[in-house]
Every structure is written in C-alpha cells, then in structure tokens.
Amino acid sequence: MSAEVKEREPLFSAKNRKLITNPLNVDNPITVQVLGICSALAVTAKLKPSFVMMLSVIAVMTLANVIISLMRNGIPPRIRIIVQLTVIASLVILVDQVLKAYVYDVSKQLSVFVGLIITNCIIMGRLEAFALANKPWPSLLDGFGNALGYGWVLLAVGFTRELFGSGTLWDYQIIPQAFYDFGYVNNGFMILPPMALIVVGVIIWIQRARNPQLIEEK
Amino acid sequence: MQELFNIFVKSIFVDNMVFAYFLGMCSYLAVSKTVETSFGLGLAVVFVLGITVPVDYLLNFYVLQPGALAWLNPGFVDIDLSFLSFIVFISVIASMVQLVEMVVEKFSPALYASLGIFLPLIAVNCAILGGSLFMQEREYQSLAQATSFGLGSGVGFFLAIVGIAAIREKIRYSNVPGPLRGLGITFIITGLMGIAFMSFLGIKL
After folding, report:
1. Domain map of chain B by residue range?
2. What is the 8-class DSSP label of residue A134?
3. Quick one: which of A151, B103, B164, B172 is 20 to 30 A from A97 by CA?
4. Looking at beta carbons, which residues of chain A come within 8 Å of B130?
C-alpha cells in the first residue's frame, strides 16, 4: 500500500477533472447516453421543481456511488442489482423525508417522481459501469459529474418552459406587463408535457450540431 | 364493472404512461428500433404491470398504509409504515420479475423465447415502479380497480412503443438533418405523438 501512496495522483488530476467535465457535454447522461429521461421530462414545467430534482439526484447519486464503491469488493456479483437497488432506495427515502420536512409544496409537486429516482437509469448505470470497478474518490467525482450533467439539461428545459409558458422564472414575473399590453400571450403549450420532449429534442440538435462526432450513423 | 372498464380505458389513453408521465422512457427509446422487439417488450410490460400492481396493492393495503396493521392487533392502529413503500415496492418488483421469468421459462418456453431477454430489463423500468406509486397515490378502492389500472397502463405503454417503432422503421428512409438523426428526431416525434394523445384529455369517464 505504501508504494501506492507515494504515487498517488493529486485529487484533481487531469483524469479526475475529466470525470466531471465529460458528462457535462460529450458524455452527457441525457442527450448522449439516453439515461434517466423519465424524471428529466416530467418535472420541468417550472424552474423550481427542476432545481430541487437536480439537487436530489446529485445527493443520491454521489452518495450511492461512494457507498457502492466502498462495498465493491464485498458484493457477490449475482445479487449486485438487488444490493444496488437497496442502497439507492434507502438514500431516496432519506431525500424524500428531507423534502417533505423542509419544502413540502415542492415535494407535493414532484409527487411520485422523487420515488422514481430509484429507477432512474443514470444512477444504476453509473453504479454498474463505474462505482463497481473504481475507488471511492473517483466514484464520487463521477457521480457528481453525471448528476450535474443531468442537472443542467433539467435546468435548461425548466428555464425555457417556465419563461415561455408562464412568463415567470422561479415564480417571479419576468416578461413585463407592457408586453402583455401590446398583445403578447404566454405560450400555454409550453406547460404541457409533450413540449418537454420537443425542447430536449432541440437541445440534442444544438449539441450535436456543435459536436459533430456525436452525430449518429445512418 | 363499468367503473373498472373506465379505469382501464383512462389509464390507456388519458393517463398514458409514456405520453402523459414520461415513464419507461429509457426502454421506450432504447428498444424501439424495430417493431418486433418492441412488441416483445410491450407484452412483457403488460404482463409484469398486471402482476406487480395488484401485489403491491395488497401490501400497501395490509401492511404499509397508516393503520393498515390493525388486522394483526388492534394496538397497531397508530403505526404508519408508508415511508417504507419505495423499498418494499422495488423489492417486490425485482423479485416478481425474477419469479415471472422462472415460471414462464418452465411452463411456456415459446413465450420465454420471445420475452426472455426483456424481462430482467423491466425490473428497472420506471413504468413499473411508477405504476405502483400512482396506485398508492390515487388510492384505488379495491383489488380489481388496482388490477385494471395496472393492465391498462401496460397496454398504454405497449401501444406507445409499438407505434414509435413503426414510425422509426419508416423514417429510416427519410432525409433527417444530421444532428437530429436517431435520438433527436425520436424525441420530437414522441412529442408530437404526445400532443395527439392530449386530445383525450378532459374526456370524463
């Protein structure tokens, strides 16, 4: 062990930094890996629930990654899925209780979607692909990075839908009354669920147009 | 009887799992490349939802609800175990999927051959857990209601995934702009399908 300690890489080496920055763009969980779509779409009608959802996912994912990474040598491979689900479910129960205690109205808005963090495929995916094979610190960074990559898409969608759908941001009026006097109307369509899909579709379009290596083969 | 039918139809069209709540999106996007595979996955989801929702209903009714344990001992009336529901539901789903897989393999090898690969995938499909959580939130009154809700949600998912698979098979011959190809266009088509399904909103059953 002592030999290893000497060669230990700095906490934020280039490799570790990549673990955080890659999921933000070229390896984004939502737009590239196609994981965790369900919750991403359903809670984004407003900015505030999107933000709360992002925080919950960051908390669950970072902790789950660290816990599984600490236990990685003790989990028999045959039952690993059940072990992972149990760890995630316990963390989600914690988050759910905290939300109910401190931000009850948001927790009501999110309704079943907090529970659905359990089956959020990003978390399972990262546990399977990363935490089971890596040390706790890189796993922590990886979990944090992926949750952040998930979070920014959530915030972007929530921002667009709330701004154009209700003319507000974080429940504050943004579009001035003068606009409405000239006949500007909120686009009620943006509030409806299907628009979330179309907004994400457009985000994917922009992202792939800027990163041509992501374009799919015909 | 009519009430059961109403719940069934409502959960297929008005409260469609995919278009109204975006549940099961991951497998919906990943397994919808051809009609044949999506048909298999759709059937498996109907099957599993039809089993897990009633089982979770019974658990919720007799164990988890506030005061549900009163049938064991009148002293347990104050016990509220509902905070445990996530972990109970997900274990029921995971073990049910395993059980269904073994039973199907034993008694119907033909069905197993067509469903086989999709069954394990389903354990982490959010539509299944979502079905149980919605069942709990909406407080269905009887086992029959919960069952018809479960089956209806499954059929709704089935319709959605077979529909998108058919469209994706056709769109392969169209000239989609490069960056939209594949995932992007699927999102937008799903959005348009969702808008079509919204026309069912407001239908009172």
Report:
1. 2-202
2. S
3. A151
4. 38, 112, 116, 119
